[in-house]
């Protein structure tokens, strides 16, 4: 990728600036577990809230739910996950490291030990995370942490229909944690065993599935545009027969050109009436919908757009990370400025208030100003180090506007606003700041 971004630089910035840290760090970490720090939490929330506003509260044909992570195990039997949610696994005959058979060339040496003894035959490995309910650990108390959000939307379908009084076509959305016992987690927050997902099931009449599939594909593209993703970094991969998940009749994987290769970002699937039909068969509940106009009674078909939240955080950071030459405080000198050109709506802080010096009279103006703006815009306050260093720190965390309170402010009751991307500065009266920012943010 251009702009100087590598995974090493991004991971280092994420750690030092408090976006994402290795999990359980003081105990030596836990492989492939990551914690969102203060800024990463804000970025992730901004992504989730923007998505919810765009796809749920901003529309009349969508409702949200927030279901339990542990569901009745029969759900996962009916959905086919207990039997079919598997990845093919092979093991190096020398060091016993395990790999996903579809991700390595088994004719080559082992990537871990370099051994050429070969690999075991592929064996299907189930990705569902098992747990036990209650105090006994026997087969009767086995349960699963949800491997996808979708199943609750199918199982709760009749209750949502009854309580929300929605009419087909309509969707049920959810955001939350999912768990998969991945064989090969890795690449920072790209593939982990515990991850965040947002997805919806959009229920349509079978005769209209193609129209809605195309519609949601366009909506997913528009969302990616909002996240600041360059179209040239995306690949739309039509998944062939035999390669799709067990429930899908058509799938497009939206892939992204990560620094570690072209890999899946999001998915769009036509799940037919597979899930509702299976839950109806196994539970005995009638999940059919009655069209109030035609009285036709049928099982709706489903279009499912699915968006990994952690992968959204990752690509948003990758897209935003920019290195450029910028002037220093020394006359005629430049150095490398690292700036996260995040979409303003997603930036953790929108504004930083920076008094030019730590002098009491400047802080006495700057601190109340920060408190005032904070009630409407996410606002940081920083009075340590030189103003140049503070500007660079705010650039690195993607703050769109820095507001400098200087000695002139004491007289003219105005401040200097610096734009993150252009570094241009304008003088604005303190009384007009809310109006000015409301127009820009
Ligand atoms: N309900 C459909 C479903 O779960 P999926 O393609 O298996 O489909 C959905 O997963 C999305 O979840 C992926 O497109 C990806 O963004 C994200 N995802 C899947 N496995 C992941 C993992 N181990 N770590 C992080 N994100 C993951």
Name the CATH homologous superfamily of the largest domain.
Bira Bifunctional Protein, Domain 2
Measure the end-to-end span: 28 Å
Strand order of the largest sheet: 3-9-10-16-13-12-11
Please give the CATH class of the largest domain.
Alpha Beta
Structural class of the helix and strand makeup? alpha+beta
CATH topology of the largest domain: BirA Bifunctional Protein, domain 2
General shape: globular
Task: Indicate the percent of residues in helices.
Answer: 25-40%
Low-confidence stretches: none
- Total number of beta strands: 23
Main beta-sheet annotation: 7 strands, mixed
The number of domains: 2
Distinct ligands: glycyl-adenosine-5'-phosphate
By DSSP (H or I, 4+ residues per run), the number of helices equals: 13
Radius of gyration: 26 Å
Query: Which CATH-level-2 architecture of the largest domain?
Result: 2-Layer Sandwich
Mind sketching the topology for me?
Elements lengths: L6 H10 L3 E3 L11 E3 L1 H20 L4 E3 L8 H6 L2 H4 L1 E6 L6 E3 L22 E4 L2 E4 L9 E4 L4 H6 L1 H8 L5 E10 L14 E11 L4 H18 L7 E5 L11 E9 L2 E12 L1 H10 L5 E2 L6 E2 L2 E8 H12 E7 L6 E7 L10 E5 L4 H15 L4 E3 L5 H11 L3 E5 L3 H4 L1 E6 L5 E5 L3 H8 L1
Parallel strand pairs: 3-9, 19-20, 19-21
Antiparallel strand pairs: 1-2, 4-5, 4-6, 7-8, 9-10, 10-16, 11-12, 12-13, 13-16, 14-15, 17-18, 21-22, 22-23
This protein binds glycyl-adenosine-5'-phosphate.
